[in-house]
């Protein structure tokens, strides 16, 4: 049995829905279909999830939301009209959307999560109706009825262990496909929580694990995962096969094509993942498998990812290396402000802490720097707002002593300053901290060194 997830680009229009219908009806094993919200139809278009965020903000700010509701519904109507469905489905979707304003939410975060989740919820209801209208028997299952229990933050949920106990008991129909909305689950008290952005991939992965799928097919709009972002490097090489841990590192550092947390349920369930193209389903795509299945990593490196979402705190203090409790005091400050950090490379008298910028606001940064100055009394402190991380990843790195040297060479030859470099923490990757404005050029140069 296969779980198949379709991204927003695959479900953005009626024409895209047709391709999806052909893909699922082509293979009996494609049993569980996970939907995203309708994505961009063309460059410059807006994803339905972003329209829903606008809708939620309008409700929070108590301003008129009539137009935004119209715009959201028009996205679903366009698809419904393509298949000439009668008006009852669109009426149902509109009622669900409007009813959101009549629901009581604990606070604005809960409201935001519920509004956002409706992108995938309504698309799943619509796809289920379209499939049945086309004579393909299918049933819609709500994450609540499947027992998808989550915890953590309403807009950044974690999967609770009960989810897998519940999925073990879930009976799938013998004679019908199942349509399942991605991106959200329910807390113990019945509130909707979404995963982080791109989180429909997580739903596909957790269902693959919980339902013991043989394969998790993740359909998107590119023929494969490429060795570098195709918006940065022209015609990058496709990756045919990679390990789970290579995917984890690459998606963490910017390969948005597969959400970075989504690999974890696949690893735990040992379900292989195949990233494929809805617009060209006969292309092999990229297969992501346990590392022991990659007997001979042929390439020195597999991929180069880059993420510009970071900020860094640089601290210099003489004799930092001898001071007992320095890092402890720093961590206590992070704890006080409920901040997690991403990396903390250190030297004798220096320490850089790298943060995910999206998790911090200006006031928190101000408080953080103030406390660090007051409590730790550094000789020098700098907040670097525009920090990028490049991750050069490959199971082959451990077998090639030259990799690090070649990377440094390719950057220094092109006058690109390296702020931080770290090899060893993970045996399969080299992490490079760099100024954001240098990031794209750095990716191009490293790519040229290893692939051209
Ligand atoms: N290394 C990469 N390989 C393939 N695609 C990539 C890579 N890096 C970034 N992308 C981008 O990811 C996009 C697909 O991801 P996403 O927008 O999440 O798709 P979906 O709408 O299917 O969920 C592609 O269109 C591509 O431009
Ligand atoms: N629709 C959600 C979740 C998601 O996974 O979307 P996509 O499959 O289009 O990346 C988002 O935009 O974040």
TrEMBL record:
Example of a GO MF term: aspartate kinase activity
Domain Aspartate/glutamate/uridylate kinase stretches: 2-277
One GO term describing the cellular component: cytosol
Reactions catalysed according to its record: L-aspartate + ATP = 4-phospho-L-aspartate + ADP
Enzyme Commission numbers on file: 2.7.2.4
Keyword Kinase: yes
Domain Aspartokinase ACT: 390-450
One GO process term, biological-process aspect: homoserine biosynthetic process
InterPro entries in the record: AceGlu_kinase-like_sf (IPR036393), ACT-like_dom_sf (IPR045865), ACT_Aspartokinase (IPR054352), AKIII_YclM_N (IPR035804), Asp/Glu/Uridylate_kinase (IPR001048), Asp_kin_monofn (IPR005260), Asp_kinase (IPR001341), AsparK_Bifunc_asparK/hSer_DH (IPR042199)
Binding annotation for ATP: 220-221, 226
Pathway: Amino-acid biosynthesis; L-lysine biosynthesis via DAP pathway; (S)-tetrahydrodipicolinate from L-aspartate: step 1/4; Amino-acid biosynthesis; L-methionine biosynthesis via de novo pathway; L-homoserine from L-aspartate: step 1/3; Amino-acid biosynthesis; L-threonine biosynthesis; L-threonine from L-aspartate: step 1/5
Alphabetic keyword roster: Amino-acid biosynthesis, ATP-binding, Diaminopimelate biosynthesis, Kinase, Nucleotide-binding, Transferase
Record-stated family: Belongs to the aspartokinase family.
Task performed by this protein: Catalyzes the phosphorylation of the beta-carboxyl group of aspartic acid with ATP to yield 4-phospho-L-aspartate, which is involved in the branched biosynthetic pathway leading to the biosynthesis of amino acids threonine, isoleucine and methionine.
UniProt protein name: Aspartokinase
The species this protein was found in: Companilactobacillus zhachilii
Lineage: Bacteria, Bacillati, Bacillota, Bacilli, Lactobacillales
């Amino acid at each position: 049995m296969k779980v198949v997830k379709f991204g927003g680009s695959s479900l953005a229009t009626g024409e895209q829905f047709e391709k999806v219908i052909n893909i699922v009806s082509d293979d009996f094993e494609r049993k569980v279909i996970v939907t995203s919200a309708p994505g961009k139809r063309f460059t410059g278009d807006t994803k339905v999830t972003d329209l829903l965020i606008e809708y939620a903000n309008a409700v929070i700010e108590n301003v008129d939301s009539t137009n935004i509701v119209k715009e959201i519904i028009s996205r679903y109507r366009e698809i419904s009209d393509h298949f000439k469905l009668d008006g009852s489905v669109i009426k149902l979707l509109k009622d669900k959307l409007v009813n959101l304003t009549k629901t009581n939410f604990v606070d604005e975060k809960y409201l935001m999560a519920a509004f956002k989740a409706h992108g995938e919820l309504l698309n799943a209801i619509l796809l289920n109706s379209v499939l049945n209208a086309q004579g393909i028997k299918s049933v819609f299952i709500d994450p609540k009825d499947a027992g998808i229990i989550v915890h953590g933050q309403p807009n950044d949920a974690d999967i609770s262990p009960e989810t897998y106990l519940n999925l073990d008991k879930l009976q799938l129909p013998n004679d019908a496909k199942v349509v399942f909305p991605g991106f959200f689950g329910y807390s113990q008290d019945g509130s909707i929580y979404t995963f982080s952005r791109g989180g429909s991939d997580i739903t596909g992965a957790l269902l693959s694990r919980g339902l013991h799928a043989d394969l998790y097919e993740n359909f998107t709009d590119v023929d494969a995962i490429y060795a570098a972002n195709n918006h940065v490097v022209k015609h990058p090489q496709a990756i045919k096969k990679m390990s789970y841990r290579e995917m984890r590192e690459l998606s963490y550092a910017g390969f948005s094509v597969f959400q970075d947390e989504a690999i974890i349920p696949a690893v735990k369930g040992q379900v292989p993942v195949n990233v494929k193209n809805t617009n060209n389903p006969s292309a092999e795509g990229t297969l992501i498998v346990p590392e022991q299945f990659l007997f001979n990593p042929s390439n020195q490196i597999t991929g180069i990812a880059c993420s510009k979402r970071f900020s860094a705190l640089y601290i210099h203090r003489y004799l930092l290396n001898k001071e007992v409790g320095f890092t402890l005091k720093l961590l206590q400050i992070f704890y006080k402000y409920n901040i997690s950090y991403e990396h903390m490379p250190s030297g004798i008298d220096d320490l850089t802490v790298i943060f995910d910028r999206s998790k911090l606001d200006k006031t928190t940064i101000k408080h953080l720097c103030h406390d660090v100055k007051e409590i730790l009394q550094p000789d020098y402190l700098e907040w670097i707002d525009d920090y990028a991380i490049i991750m050069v990843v490959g199971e082959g790195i451990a077998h090639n002593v030259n990799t690090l040297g070649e990377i440094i060479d390719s950057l220094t030859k092109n006058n690109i300053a390296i702020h931080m470099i770290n090899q060893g923490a993970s045996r399969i990757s080299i992490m490079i901290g760099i100024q954001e404005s240098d990031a794209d050029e750095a990716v191009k140069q490293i790519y040229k060194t290893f692939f051209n």
